[in-house]
Amino acid sequence: MRTLKYRIKPSFHALDIELTFMPSRIGPLALHLPIWRPGRYQVQHFAKNIATVTCADALVVKSDLSSWIVDVKDLKPITVTYRYHAEQPDAGGSWVDDSMVYINFVNCLLFPHRGENRACEVEVLLPPAGGYETSCALRTFGNKFRAKSYRELVDSPFLAAPQLHTHAWKTHGVKFYLQGLGPKTHFSDRLLKAYQKFVAYQLDYMGEFPVREYRFMLWICPKPFYHGVEHTKSTMMVMGPEDRDSYEDLIGLGSHELYHVWNVATIRPKALLPYDYTKAVIFDTGWIVEGITTYLGDWFLWASGVVNPDEYVNLLAGNLKLHFERDGASKQSLLESSIDLWLDGYGSALPGKRVSIYFKGALVALGLDLLIRRKFQHAKSLRDVMLLMQERYGQLKNGYTRQEFYALVEEVYEESLSEFWTRWVESSEPLQGEIAALLESVGLYFESEGILTISDLNRLEVFGIAQ
Ligand SMILES: [Zn+2]
From ligand 1's centre to the CA of 263, what distance in Å? Predict the structure, then answer.
């Protein structure tokens, strides 16, 4: 009876939740709600959406911003109940209205102190008349979902609606789903074919996939929106408005989120292994997580034939432009902005303060890829770095530090890169000259305004895949 059992009854903008579990001892027992969620490294205090927690058999007292103490009197199962206000319509929040239920369990499910590794069972009581279809990466038993731990549970968002559009396919022995709600036109065969291509390519590129089943979950919403959150066995993407063509955004976002299965869900910074949901976890490697994923996410679209070289060069130019125009003169280094994610990584920051770990991180990933390719005439590339990261840190479930990443890249490069790290990662020096020189080695001409042109298509082909 170690299992944490949750019953969730959704209603308009609300989740009525019951948690039943066997306490491990008599006396005061803390219950916590995560204060942040993996994927957004910022304190969010989801507890602001809970007014009060009660228990029929014991006193419950709020003890901290996101913690409550239950006074356990007997060693028998106890049940606590509370209402969570579910009105955050994005990929990392929870939202319930008359037509859908979307729950991020990390927002709303309490767990007993040090109970993150306990098995969990969740029952979501959907409206009986609705005939809802569900999408969730957890194992299903009737109308219940089971997770081997709270960690797995909160890494598995839940989506339900009267009708979900579903594409399913199998590649490399892995079952994939592209599933969600919104106008059917967004779930086109063209989109499915693009997903099948970059999925197969990424699995070939990394040689193995850490999970046996994976879901691309999608919510096409009425308002202008672009948001995705990565998980180990799924991703949730929210895109809007309904009347625009979402194809280009969805191929870019899907490819990015899939690569996170390796780069963060499996190959993870040491500070995040395991996740501590109760405090801000500072790490200086956010640029490795998001920068490499941003760079390779786009590159996979080209390498797998989803976009042509001209379209890829436009994507690359767009990322360079975003960095140089917005953050080119920012005062912080990439390392400082990685740490400051928790302060202002996602909202507004002081003008001229931060750099984006996504776009400057992608610039560093591009720089590394081109440096390695230039030295070894394309016989080695960033792929060798990521395969070694997977072998040393991913497969062994061993987190890496920034210094370990540096050392591993230098092992692939067969030479020190200390000057590169100082200039590109640890300082805020402008890098237009450096990146232009590297791009020229693969036939791309970069002007400081952010314009990128192909000067020699034949030479460009060796940078990627000859098509
Ligand atoms: Zn990302």
Answer: 9
φ and ψ of 151, to 5 deg: -60, -45
Cα of 324 vs centre of ligand 1, distance in Å, is 20
Residues 139 and 248 in one domain: no
Whether 276 and 410 map to the same domain: the answer is: yes
Distance CA 312, CA 301 (A): 8
156 plus 187 within the same structural domain: no
Evaluate whether 42 touches 346 at the Cβ level (below 8 Å): yes
Q: What separation in Å is there between the alpha carbon of 363 and the centre of ligand 1?
A: 15
Measured on CA atoms in the order 411, 413, 416, 420, is the torsion positive or negative? Answer: negative
Rounded to the nearest angstrom, the distance between the alpha carbon of 155 and the centre of ligand 1 is 15
User: Whole-model pTM?
Assistant: 0.96
Structure confidence by residue, pLDDT tens digits, 271-328:
999 999 999 999 999 999 999 999 999 999 999 999 998 899 899 999 999 999 999 8
CA 293 / ligand 1 centre spacing (Å): 6
- One domain, residues 203 and 278: no
Burial class of 76 by CB neighbour count within 10 A (0 to 12, 13 to 18, 19+) = exposed
Q: How far is the CA of 126 from the centre of ligand 1 (A)?
A: 31
Report pLDDT digits (tens) over 19-59.
Answer: 999 998 999 999 999 999 999 999 999 999 999 999 999 99
